Amino acid sequence: MASLEVSRSPRRSRRELEVRSPRQNKYSVLLPTYNERENLPLIVWLLVKSFCESGINYEIIIIDDGSPDGTRDVAEQLEKIYGSDRILLRPREKKLGLGTAYIHGMKHATGNYIIIMDADLSHHPKFIPEFISDGVLPCCPGWSLLGSSDPPILASWDYSRGANFLTQILLRPGASDLTGSFRLYRKEVLEKLIEKCVSKGYVFQMEMIVRARQLNYTIGE
User: What are 39-92's pLDDT values in tens digits?
Assistant: First the structure.
């Protein structure tokens, strides 16, 4: 599982960016959810902890697709706990695809950088400051927050390996992992990529990287 940073300009450290525009960078986390009632409080707490300890300006946008397990109720409680300026609940009535969830969330994002990630604890927020500074995130196949590799995670990784293998042969995108969903984008870049993309489901992630390469954006992995 690889992380990706997509931008038009060469990668710069967070310190360099702050020198250029002190304290002006803001990071909007898009967090699509479906039946994440138990995971959501923990992933939000970890995100808040990571951002606060690093002094990073942030907001977390939760896009819940009509979860029947009460995820939306939990999100509403988190919004009250952390404040509506930090936690923004922007729900939808039903599952409409991962791609459209990102589009929906980005409409409400006020940051100039966008972080996309999963809410199922497969992506650990403690690496985000390092990710921001140099675009490198050490994640391993089958890794989860609790250190376990149960069959669903491994099955997902097998699927990803097959999808990446075929894509490398057919499209030559210039990135090794096209299915990973832990990414950092400049907001204006993500907006342009979404305009070009036609996919709505999980293949949306793959198309985004292919489109980014076609548009000559820089991809750090």
Answer: 999 999 999 999 999 999 999 999 999 999 999 999 999 999 999 999 999 999
* Residues 96, 65 contacting (CB under 8 angstroms): yes
Q: Where are the alpha helices (DSSP H) in the chain?
A: 14-20, 40-54, 71-82, 98-106, 128-134, 151-171, 187-196, 203-214
- Full-model pTM: 0.71
Distance, in Å, from the CA atom of 173 to the CA atom of 167, rounded to the nearest integer, reads 8
Among 124, 121, 221, 119, CA closest to 164: 221
Q: Can you tell me the distance from the alpha carbon of 3 to that of 86, in angstroms, rounded to the nearest whole number? A: 24
What is the rounded CA–CA span in Å between residue 8 and residue 188?
10
| Alpha-carbon span 2 to 180, nearest angstrom | 6
Query: Domains of the chain by range and CATH?
Result: 27-140+161-215 (3.90.550.10)
Q: Is-contact 167 173, C-beta < 8 A?
A: yes
Question: Whole-angstrom Cα distance, residue 204 to residue 137?
Answer: 21
Residue 162: beta bridge partners? none
Q: Which residues of 16-52 are buried (b: 16+ CB within 10 A; e: fewer)?
A: ebeeeeeeebebbbbbbbbbbbebbeebbebbbebbe
Cα 96 to chain centroid distance, Å, stands at 18
Which residue is listed with tokens 């009509």?
66
